[in-house]
Amino acid sequence: MPEVGELKTLLVVAHVPSPNTRSMCDAVVRGASHPDVTGVTVRVRTPFQAGPDDVFAADGIILGTTENLGYMSGAMKDFFDRSYYPVLDRCQGMPYGLYIRAGMDGTGTRRAIEGIMNGLRWRAVQEHVICRGEWDPAFLARCEDFGLGMAAGLEAGIF
Fold first, then answer.
1. What's the rounded Cα separation, in Å, for the pair 11 and 4?
2. Which of 5, 51, 85, 89 lies 20 to 30 Å from 120, alpha-carbon distance?
């Protein structure tokens, strides 16, 4: 891990199948790229684009997924299927954050991802953001604050 003051990389792996989920990812990136946070580079990948090398190059990661049938998106599951074993022993302690666009309650999605995170020994460094129910433009402010918090914490060496 880089020392405090060194440029750090925040990886955002987000499934964005709709304009609303794209706008949520954009809000996370906007927050993480806030002008007051100068020590963090933000790298954005879809789950199909991201792989172990992206994780190896990151100092922290934000995961964004939709709730699909009470579970994470198939795209996010594909990312974990391809990345889990290669990163298992090399990235323990990775700070992560999770946001979910849930049409229902997001409980199954959260539980599934937390189970994978426990296996990887990654550590949640912020409260998960679960945007439940009908679309609400207020989701965007929550996502932006979430991205800012993650980037600021990385920059400050808090996580």
1. 18
2. 5
pTM over 0.90: yes
Q: Say which amino acid occupies 153.
A: G
Place of tokens 């990886």: 11
Closest CA to 126 of 101, 158, 155: 158
- Answer yes or no: are the C-beta atoms of 142 and 24 closer than 8 Å: no
CB 21 within 8 A of CB 64: yes
The one-letter amino acid at 123 = R
